[in-house]
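SAMPLE LOG
Freezer: B-3
Tube label: C17
Construct: single chain, 126 aa
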Amino acid sequence: SISHTYLFTTIHIFSSFCVLIMGDQYDRTLIRLSSTEDDKLDPILTKLLPLVFEELLTQTEAPLRLKIVGVLNHVLTRAKGNTAIKLPAKGILEKWFSPKLATSGGAPFFRNLSVIFLDLSVPRLQ
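STRUCTURE (predicted):
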C-alpha cells in the first residue's frame, strides 16, 4: 500500500511543478506584452485581459497570483501612458457576473483591479 507520506510528497512535488510551469507561462506572456508595440495591443488585450482576470479568480497559489498581478500592472502602466490603447470593458465586466466571483479567494484582488481597469476603459469606448 502507498504510504500517506509518499502520497503527500508526490502531490507536493506535482503542485510545485505546476506552479513552475504556470509561472513560466505568465513570464512569457509578460515578455511578449513588453515587446508588443502599443498600436498592436488592442486585439491582444481584448482576448488576454478577460482571461487574466479569470485567472485572478481561480488561481490560489500566491506566487502565481503575484505574476498575474504583474501582467495586469504592466498593461495598466502602458494604458495610463497611452490613451489610444483600448481596454476590453465588456470582457472585464462579464467576469463580474461569473459564479466564481462569489466563492473565489481572489475576489478582493479581482474587484479592486477590475474597477481600476473599467475606470480607464469606459472613457475610451467609442
